[in-house]
C-alpha cells in the first residue's frame, strides 16, 4: 500500500531520485491527502487496480491490465515489486512489455506459511503455481531472510531466477537512538498492525495473566486497524482490550522513533515476518525484545543477547520472559545496549539502500537499454 511504502521505503525512493532515477509509485488508489503527500515529496503516485486479498481470475486480469497501462505510459526501465501480487502480476506485465529489468522483493510469506491448515496448503499451492507461471525467469528475486530463500528454492517456486539476500530496509540510526530511561512502571510496546498473525492475542493474554498476578506495567498498543485484512482484530474486541486497566491504546503513529523512546521493552510475538522492521527499530532504539522463534524475527533478535525468543502462538511461553524484563531494569539495559550495537552493525539504512541502488545502476549499465526495451522499439516503429 501507499502508506506502507511511505513508512518503509521512502528513503530508498529519495536516494534513487537523487541518483537521477524517476521514481513512480504504483499502488491502490489513495485519498487526496495521501496523493498530495507524495507530490510534496517530489514523487508520482499512480493508482492500479489491485485487490489486497484473495485470488480472482477476473480481478487479477484487471490488475495485469492496469500494470500494463501504467508501464506503457511511463516507458518503464526497471520494475521493482514488493508484495506477492505486485511481484507476480506486475512482473508478468513487465515481461510481456519487454521492460529491461524486473526485480521482486519477498517481504514475507504471511499466514498461509505459518500453519498447515487445508486452506493454507491450498493458498501455498496456488501461490507456487502463480510464481512459476508468471514470475519471469530473468527477474532478480530479493529475499530478506535465509529461511524464505531456502524455502522458495527447495519447493520449486523459482526457475533459475537470480537471487539476492538484503536484510530489510534498514533504519536511520540517528533517529532511532537509545535514551536514558527513568525508573518508572515499565512500559511494554506492541508495535504492529492489528491482525492476529502479529501475535496481539497472545500478548494481551500474557499481560492479563501478569497483571492478575500483581505485576506493575503498562502495555502500549501501537498500530493501524486493518478491518479489510484477513485475521483482523474486530472492533468489539478492540474496545474490550482498550478498557483493560494496564492498556494504553495509541493507534497508528507516524513518529515511531518517539514512541520507542518512551517505552522500556517491546513484545512482538508474530507468527512470521519477512524481516521485522519494528524489531529493527526497537533494537536501534536500545530496547530489549520478546519475540518468536520464526523467520523474520529470529533473524533480527539474538536470543539471550538482545532479548528472548519463544515459540509462536504460545501465551504461556511469553509470560516469564516478560516478567523477567518487567522486574529488572538492569536486564533491560544490558539487553538493550547489545541490541543497539547489533543494529549499528547490521541495519544502517545507508548501507542497505546502497545494495538496492547498486542493483538498479548495474542493471542500467549491463543492459545499456535505457529507453530501448522491446515495447519502446515497437512504439517507435
Characterization of the model:
The protein is α/β, with parallel strands linked by helices and 381 residues long. It is 46% helix and 13% strand. It is built from 14 helices and 12 strands. The protein has a 6-stranded parallel sheet with strand order 9-8-7-10-11-12, with helices on both faces. Helix 6 links the parallel strand 5 and strand 6 (162-165). The longest helix has 19 residues, at 349-367. The protein is globular and about 65 Å long. The two termini are 36 Å apart. Mean pLDDT is 89; it is low at 369-381.
In short:
This protein has 381 residues and is an alpha/beta fold.
Structural class: alpha/beta
Uncertain segments: 369-381
Count of distinct strands: 12
Strand order of the largest sheet: 9-8-7-10-11-12
> Termini separation (Å)?
36 Å
Q: How many strands, what sense, and barrel or not for the largest sheet?
A: 6 strands, parallel
Shape field: globular
- How much strand? 5-15%
Radius of gyration: 22 Å
Helix count from the secondary structure assignment? 14
Q: What is the average per-residue confidence, as pLDDT, rounded to a whole number?
A: 89
Q: Please estimate the helix content.
A: 40-55%
How are helices and strands ordered from N to C? Answer: HEHEHEHEHEHEEHEHEHEHEEHHHH
Features:
single chain, 6-stranded parallel β-sheet, disordered C terminus, alpha/beta
Amino acid at each position: 500500500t501507499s502508506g506502507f511504502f511511505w513508512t518503509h521505503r521512502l528513503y530508498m525512493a529519495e536516494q534513487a531520485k537523487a541518483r537521477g532515477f524517476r521514481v513512480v509509485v504504483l499502488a491502490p488508489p489513495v485519498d487526496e491527502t495521501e496523493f498530495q503527500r507524495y507530490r510534496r515529496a517530489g514523487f508520482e503516485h499512480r493508482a492500479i487496480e489491485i485487490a489486497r486479498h484473495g485470488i480472482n481470475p477476473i480481478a487479477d486480469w484487471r490488475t495485469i491490465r492496469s500494470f500494463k497501462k501504467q508501464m506503457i505510459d511511463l516507458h518503464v526501465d526497471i520494475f521493482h515489486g514488493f508484495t506477492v501480487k505486485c511481484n507476480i502480476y506486475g512482473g508478468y506485465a513487465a515481461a510481456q512489455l519487454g521492460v529491461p529489468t524486473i526485480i521482486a522483493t519477498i517481504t514475507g510469506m504471511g499466514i498461509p506459511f505459518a500453519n498447515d491448515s487445508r486452506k493454507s496448503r491450498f493458498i501455498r499451492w496456488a501461490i507456487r503455481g502463480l510464481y512459476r507461471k508468471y514470475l519471469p525467469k530473468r527477474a532478480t528475486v530479493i529475499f530478506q531472510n535465509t529461511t524464505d530463500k531456502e524455502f522458495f528454492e527447495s519447493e520449486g517456486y523459482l526457475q533459475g531466477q537470480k537471487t539476492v539476500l538484503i536484510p530489510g530496509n534498514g533504519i536511520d540510526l540517528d533517529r532511532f537512538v537509545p535514551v536514558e530511561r527513568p525508573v518508572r512502571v515499565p512500559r511494554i510496546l506492541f508495535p504492529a498492525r492489528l491482525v492476529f498473525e502479529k501475535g496481539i492475542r497472545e500478548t494481551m493474554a500474557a499481560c492479563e495473566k501478569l497483571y492478575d498476578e500483581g505485576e506493575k506495567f503498562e502495555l502500549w498498543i501501537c498500530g493501524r486497524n486493518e478491518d479489510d485484512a484477513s485475521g483482523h482484530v474486530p472492533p468489539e474486541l478492540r474496545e474490550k482490550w482498550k478498557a483493560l486497566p494496564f492498556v494504553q491504546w495509541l493507534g497508528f503513529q507516524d513518529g515511531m522513533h518517539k514512541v520507542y523512546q518512551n517505552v522500556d521493552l517491546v513484545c512482538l510475538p508474530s507468527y512470521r515476518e519477512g524481516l521485522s522492521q519494528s524489531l529493527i527499530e526497537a533494537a536501534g532504539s536500545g530496547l530489549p525484545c520478546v519475540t518468536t522463534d520464526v523467520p523474520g524475527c529470529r533473524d533480527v533478535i539474538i536470543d539471550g543477547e538482545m532479548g528472548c525468543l519463544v515459540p509462536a502462538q504460545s501465551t504461556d511461553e511469553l509470560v516469564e520472559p516478560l516478567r523477567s524484563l518487567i522486574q529488572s531494569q538492569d536486564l533491560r539495559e544490558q539487553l538493550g545496549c547489545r541490541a543497539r550495537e547489533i543494529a549499528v552493525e547490521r541495519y544502517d539504512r545507508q548501507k542497505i539502500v546502497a545494495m538496492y541502488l547498486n542493483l538498479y545502476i548495474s542493471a542500467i549499465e549491463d543492459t545499456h537499454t535505457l529507453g530501448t526495451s522491446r515495447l519502446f522499439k515497437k512504439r517507435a516503429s
